[in-house]
Amino acid sequence: SPFSVLGEIVVNEVNFVRKCIATDTSQYDLWGKLVCTNFKISFITDDPMPLQKFHYKNLLLGEHDVPLTCIEQIVTVNDTKRKQKVLGPNQKLKFNPTELIIYCKDFRIVRFRFDEAGPESAKKVCLAIAHYSQPTDLQLLFAFEYVGEIYHDPAKKVNGIDPGGGGGGIGSASGQQTPLFETYSDWDREIKRTGASEWRVCSVNEGYMISTCLPEYFVVPSSLADQDLKLYSYSFIGRRMPLWSWNHPNGSALVRMANIKDVLQQRRIDQRICNAITRSHPLRSDVYKSDLDRCLPNIQEIQAAHIKLKQLCVNEPFEETEEKWLSSLENTHWLEYIRSFLKHSAELVYMMECKHVSVVLQEEEGRDLSCLSASLIQVMLDPYFRTIVGFQSLIQKEWVMAGYQFLDRCNHLKRSDKESPLFLMFLDCVWQLLEQYPAAFEFSEVYLTILHDSARISLFGTFLFNCPHQRVKESTEFAISKNIQLGDEKGLRFPCVWDWSLQFTSRDRLLFHNPLYVGGAVKTFKRSKKNYSSTLRGVPPALKNGIISEQEFLPRRNSLILKLKPDFLQQTESQSNSMEQYFRDWFAKPVDLHGVILPRISGTQIKLWKLCYFRWVPEAQINHGGFITAFHKVSLLADEVDMLNRNLRQYKSNSSLQGNCSELDQSRMYFRANSSNDTSGAPDFLSSSFPFSPVGNLCRRSILGTPLSKFLSGAKIWLSTETLANED
Predict the structure, then answer these.
(1) Domain 10-134 adopts which CATH fold?
(2) Which residues belong to any copy of the Myotubularin phosphatase domain (predicted)?
(3) Of 251, 351, 388, 424, whose CB neighbour count within 10 A is largest?
């Protein structure tokens, strides 16, 4: 049965449904059964997929499946009556639908025809999908159903895996578990890893006694007593006391802080906190404050940009002229906002790295922009966060435990006016850095894209709640209502997204690995030095840093970034001069892949993340093209080097043949040098959408030969149409 996920039940189904593959012809359409379950919508067909040679299999979802939490909008159509209706959760449908169009949050469009299906059954399925994809209550999300089943019958664990484990689950080089930062010891180890000797783990919020939107444990200056913290907490919005994020080897700390709402106490408490942070610095350095609400785009602007970006990539986007399309892209402001986050983070990296001052990120509630800024700064400064396990621990620490409101911002219940894709924007910013410094990251862009998709699967507890306390409160209520005995546990344990074996086979998880990654001695969570493979030590000159010109670095007089940066405008002339000098010097030297990395942010260096946004658009696919072709070649080389290294070790240790066989199979690479599809050339199924397949999603008219297809094939986006015409 395709419904093998525990707790999944079929709610409604209809036979003789046609899945439309192209808008202008029905020759590729598939016939099958449309099914709505309490977890996903499924289309079951025996027809082979047309034109498709490859499918990356998710163990939870079939290739035609859409998780209910990934559905954005449901549109029913009746051709003969010329009627169309967007279906809300409890609405009635007065006509029998001849067509159903589903718009997904990952930019997919899926379309079904009911010409041969029973009209009543078709109507029932549409209403069921509308009802189950727009639940009225958090406890109606599928994760609760799944976990309820497991607690009633522990023998049913999927693959024998406990829900809630932070499993590395990806065969990461260190084989470590991802720290979840739910315990005192995880925070303590992070203090030791970063050498933050003047900071301590504080347990004053145990049982969420002070703030329901903070974690139970967090890190504070050693000089602040628990009693003082309790007292100060009343003055902060949400009682969110300052949170330590990270320590630089030079002693500078990165701290997040909500606004102080008590105007009378504001200066006194602010001074106390800053003094404590200063006392925790070995040089007793000043504290530099950045007011994120004043110098970065707000969540409404980011949401508006995302809606425009989606319209551009989803709504018949490819029939306009190049100028029009590119100016539409610019008008979304998406890339502009990515640039401002990268630039702002780089400036704060300079403050910590060069000025040796601690940085406080100040934001009204301290749980939106500061998640993104704090994470980006750490990715730039600490190579541990550029490994897979390190990156996962960063998301746990700065997003999940720090109270980023995934439920509201991802709008899992489809009724929030607080929706905003900050988490996607963070992944996009990291992708920009990965694109600029491919050898500095252990993970690939496929990993980042799948991580984005996983936030839309309602099985995992990781991205389901607004804060850790909400998980405990809601799941305890649920347990009581279902007679589940919790024992000593604080709430139910949900499956963890970091347990990748729930979604992918170990072979498919190899696509998460970046073959260009140059491993080295990275201070891991246990503070032991792990040696990663030394493959590709010599970075080709193309990957080394180009020099960025002063004009490119400094924003134009009237650019958005200057308007966004009042706090930086107030700096003295010498301060901004020394910052420019720092950036100039840094870009003039070759990159240390295990040191600081800084973004290049001039016009053309911030790019559109095509794999994430264009992968479902069949016309935007370049067969045998895209980054994957280089990925494939480098994987074969890296695999060959690994194999030679293994053979050399075998030879030196004169080990038996038995050992030889098992070790030779331990490739880190998805594409292997010794496999059947190897050296003769790239496999037939590679395309710019790989490992995703847009086949089966709605096609538009062909765009071959249009300016957009040239842009997708890598034409410079500032070229005019005339230039493109001349190129031909």
Answers:
(1) PH-domain like (2.30.29)
(2) 181-613
(3) 388
